[in-house]
Amino acid sequence: MERNPVTELREKIDMDRLPSHIAIIMDGNGRWAKKRLLPRTAGHREGMKRVIDIVQVASELNIKYLSLYAFSTENWKRPKEEIDGLMKLLVEYIRIELDRIHRNNIKIQTMGDLSKIPEFARKEIKRAIDTTQNNTKMVLNIGLNYGGRDEIIRGIKSLLEDIRMGKINIEEVDEGSFKNYLYTKDIPDPDLLIRPSGELRISNFMLYQIAYTEFWFSDILWPDFKEEHLYMAIIDYQRRNRRFGGI
Ligand code: FPP
Description:
Blueprint: H1 5-11, E1 21-25, H2 29-35, H3 40-61, E2 65-72, H4 80-103, E3 106-111, H5 119-132, E4 138-146, H6 148-164, H7 175-178, E5 192-195, E6 214-217, H8 227-239
Parallel strand pairs: 1-2, 1-5, 2-4, 3-4, 5-6
Helix pairs in contact: 2-3, 3-4, 4-5
The chain binds farnesyl diphosphate (FPP).
């Protein structure tokens, strides 16, 4: 009988050593569209379909946390039509997928300042968060108006405020307590960060949390990213020897 190469790849994954938290910088939508002479929003739409696929695959694999970079604090510099298109896609994603996400016991949460997200999208995001708040199989953590530096500065401001109010002493400030001032206070640091599209940079994503994260870069554009690429990243991750500064 002929073997399916994707199944073969999946079988190479050691299910006892899965990364608990995978973070993905979903890049390359614009280039994918340009190659096909399509508007950039067509690339984002195809990228949304990959979000649907990868959330499903990650949850089937038993990944506990999946963080996706959907909109950065710098993305406001893009043309208005593109920003509007991205916000509409996010709403469409929630409308199409929320039922299934909820049925699959996935909890949606976000990181980033939602106050700047247009009202029509914020309402849907809130509905998704509220509906799924008690789910326990996997956390889908979406970066929306998120920037790593912005997160750290907000954390510091809020910590200083708590010090001023006497809620915490300077002596108590350490890595354990500072974590509570980040958007990711309830989730562990990423074990594996995936960046497709050939760019070899972090672009302000989870700067504080990636101290010991393993990186996996690839030339594949996000709209072409398939389940086998996720498997390849995990297999590669499992070959590495994580020492966390030890020997
Ligand atoms: C980067 O590609 C991608 C984005 C800025 C947006 C990512 C959004 C989605 C995949 C769709 C909606 C998201 C969810 C969570 C449903 P780029 O435009 O910078 O690509 P380029 O570098 O090729 O121009």
